[in-house]
Give the backbone structure.
Amino acid sequence: MISPTLFQKEIDLIIANAIREDIGDGDHSSLACIPSDAKGKAKLLVKEDCVIAGVDFAIQIFKYVDPELKVEVIIQDGSKVQIGDIVFYVSGKSQSILKAERLVLNSMQRMSAIASKTRSYVDILRGTKTKILDTRKTTPGIRALEKWAVKIGGGENHRFALYDMIMLKDNHIDFAGGITLAITKTQEYLKVTKKDLKIIVEARNLTEVQEILSNEGVFRILLDNFNYEDTKKAVSMINGKCFTEASGGINEVTLREYALCGVDFISSGALTHSVYNKDLSLKAV
């Protein structure tokens, strides 16, 4: 994953762009009927059981819109909440609260959905050594939020983007002329560019696992669409020489069985691409 400083820059960009998109030259609904000096208070109300996520992000949104807005947090990120719970109160200029409202809700509803799904996967894996990873299958423009939500839910982040890790997948291998050539060229590239990037290599079968193992410097082998039996065999072949990752259509039904095969990680695009926003509301008090 990228550094905390770079991650925060991504968050700052998301807020600035989202506010630009939503407000434009002004929130004319509020400007038309609410005095500029009017003060108000609102609460973040839970309308669906979930793992709450995005509280800290909401605070950053409110601060960006109006540094004088005050947020009183009742429930922290990562907590399980129930219908009727109040997560926080925000108070200050009514116009400012309304400017921030939609971005806060859109973000927290999606982040809470991702955190909730991630937590359910983490619970399934409990008692095994396997950790759940997200992927790059995220919503364009808000990847940082979605990966943040995975962490809040108890999962781990895979690479953030194309620039912070080397991942040699089937197409890279085929275009490069084979596994060994792809790995060799990659290691030469890293030497020339003086980049310190971990290398993950995808294997489509046990023969490819064996070829990857004949090369040095591989951080993790990705076992793509392996069945249970071949996953167990691959883990035995690798025998701790590098980390192992299982991927490819693994869901709630098959998740624990793959973990019991002994892999270090399971990656799942479903954490971010197959969730429905949780029901939250910002209501005037």
Residues 8 and 247 are 29 Å apart (CA to CA). The chain has a mean pLDDT of 97. The first strand starts at residue 39 and ends at 46. The chain has eleven helices and twelve strands.
